[in-house]
Structure formats: structure tokens, C-alpha cells
Amino acid sequence: MGFFHKKEEANLEHHEPVITAYGDQMNDGMVQMSFTLPTTCGLESKEAAKLFVEKMGFEKVMVTHMEAISDNFTFFVVYGKTNQHIDIREIKVVRPEHPVFSFDEINEVIEKKIGRKLVVVGACIGSDAHTVGIDAIFNMKGFRHDWGFERYPWLSAYNLRAQVAVEDLVQKVVALNADAVLISRVVTQRDEHIIELKKFLDLLKNTSGVSPHLIKICGGPRISFEDAISWGYDAGFGPGTKPSEVASFIVHEFLKRAGKN
Ligand code: B12
């Protein structure tokens, strides 16, 4: 999915501005949804699933599939019609507005405009053991035909991998005098990711020796740019992010802070 930049923004001009869900005809408002109820599988629970969806405001509700997933839990697929519409002209999306540079362009900009390697430190924090996301951004082989940070000659990239305590990450940021810190959180159960991400920022504020210009970035499959900004980060990147998108943001933000762009 990734994020759209200005130049790639979806062209909405050829669409009707007021839209609803498409099932098999324009404007039929048909929606398919799935959920689990903590009930045994049977006709009563099927009726419960139908009522549950009707209470959400759907009409013409049909339970098209139900399956016991254990003794006391049943999974449902339900179809229903909504009367809700969205006017896409009113949609506002908070997104990074910088251009995305290529691998060569990023290196060239750092070399010519900054004149030294940028130091970037990454980790997946807390008890979270998922390394694949942070590796996709850092590992030399990269992700989706896009080289990772370790291949950039003008980045000094340190990937601390997973289950890194926020205290250790802060120490590393100070020891390396990092220009940017990149945090991954994949486990989001009970909003644990928000607690950990905020804990890192609090610790950073109370630690001396951190560069006042440190660029703070977080990412993960359930992290949006808008959420990251609201938590106090400079940017947040979600599913499908490519390393060059993140490197472009870092370079753009670094130059902006240095008054050089
Ligand atoms: C592989 C995997 C594992 C492996 C991890 C191996 C490893 N070395 O990483 C193992 C088996 C260890 C594992 C364990 C667990 N897992 Co797991 N795992 C997955 C799985 C199948 C794929 C994750 C993955 O690798 N995605 C591929 C990467 C490339 O995608 P990504 O992480 O989204 O990263 C991209 C972007 O998000 C972004 N990004 C990510 N981080 C960052 C950081 C920055 C700075 C930036 C800029 C961008 C960025 O860029 C990346 C590239 O585009 C997912 C389900 C799924 N299909 O997604 C479940 C999943 C993530 N796991 C889950 C769970 C629950 C667990 C366990 C708790 C299970 C258990 N009960 O033990 C444990 C966790 C243990 C722990 N302490 O953390 C849940 C999380 C639910 C939630 N919302 O919290 C998922 C969603 C499965 C599910 N549907 O329930 N898991």
C-alpha cells in the first residue's frame, strides 16, 4: 500500500465525488464483513450475528458463512447493505509531502548538500520479536527491489534488530550521535505499541547528549503517518514502505532543519 506523495496522488477527478460501497452494482452499498463471537456454533449464534450487524445499521443482512473455531467461539462472514455515503472531496490525509528520491539521488544529495554520512539507528523495541519490518528498511538486500540503508554509501546504518529495551536504544542514539532513530513495532495488542513508543520519547527527553536535531521515525503494519505525528514522532510509515521513501524523508527533514532546501 505505502503512501501517496503529491506526484503519485490518486486522480479522483474521474470518480463520482459521493460514494458508497460497491457490491455488484454502483451505489448498492453492499459490504462484506467478518468477525468472531464468543458463542457455540448454532442457529442461535447465527441469529445473534445477524442482529449484531443490524444493530450496526446494516439492512438486508445475510450470514453467508459460519464456522466453529473452538468450542465457544464462532467465526462469521456476513453481507449487509449500508446507507452511509462518503464525499471524497471532504477527505483530508496527513502525509509526508516531500518528493521521493532514488537511491542515487539520495546519496548525491547527502554528498553534495551535507558532505558527511548521516547516522541512522534502528530497532524493534520492547518485547516485540518481529525483525522482518526493520530488516526490510535496513538490510542491504532491501525490500521490493529497493536497496536497504546498509547499501547506501552515504548512510552509516546500525540495525539493532528486535527486543531492544528503549533504555538501550537511547544509549545507542547518544553514543553514535545519531541523526535519525527508526523504531519498529509490529505487535499492537492492547495498544502496547503506543505505550512503548511514547516511553521511548519520554526517556529521550530526559537524557542528555541527544542531538536536538534528532529525527524520530516509527513504523509498522498498523502505524500511520498521522498517528505517529500525534504521538510526537516526525514521521510514521506503514505497510509496504520502501527504504528509499524513508531515506528521502530523512534527507528532506535534515536539510529543512539545516535551512538548506
Ligand atoms: C513472521 C511473523 C512472526 C515471526 C517473526 C520472525 C521475525 N524474525 O521477525 C514469529 C514466528 C517469531 C512471530 C511471533 C509472534 N507473532 Co507474529 N507474525 C508474523 C507475520 C506472519 C509476518 C510479519 C512479517 O514479517 N511481515 C513482513 C514485513 C516486511 O512487514 P512489516 O512488519 O509490516 O514491515 C513493513 C512496514 O510495516 C514497515 N515497517 C515496519 N517496521 C518499520 C519501522 C520503521 C522505522 C519504518 C520506517 C518502517 C517500518 O516497513 C516494512 C516494509 O514495508 C505476521 C502476520 C502477517 N501476515 O503480517 C504475524 C503477526 C505480526 N504476529 C502476531 C503475533 C500475535 C505474534 C506472537 C505474539 C504470537 C504468539 N502468541 O506467540 C509472537 C510475538 C512474539 C514477540 N515476543 O513478539 C500478530 C500481531 C497481532 C497484533 N496486532 O499485535 C500477527 C499480525 C499475526 C496475527 N494475525 O495474529 N511472528
Which labels suit this protein?
261 residues; elongated; Rossmann fold; alpha/beta; 7 helices; Defensin A-like; disordered N terminus; three-stranded antiparallel β-sheet; binds cobalamin; five-stranded parallel β-sheet
Question: What do you see in this structure?
Answer:
Helices cover 30% and strands 22% of the residues. The strands form three sheets. A five-stranded parallel β-sheet has the order 7-6-8-9-10, sandwiched between helices. It has a three-stranded antiparallel β-sheet with strand order 2-4-3, with helices on one face. The protein has a two-stranded antiparallel sheet with strand order 1-5. The protein is an alpha/beta fold and 261 residues long. The chain has two domains: 18-81, D-lysine 5,6-aminomutase beta subunit KamE, N-terminal domain (Defensin A-like), CATH 3.30.30; 103-257, Rossmann fold (3-Layer(aba) Sandwich), CATH 3.40.50.280. It contains seven helices and ten strands. Residues 1-8 have low confidence and may be disordered. The longest helix is centred in the C-terminal third of the chain and has 15 residues, at 243-257. The two termini are 28 Å apart. Bound molecules: cobalamin. The site of cobalamin has 30 residues, from α3, β8 and β9.
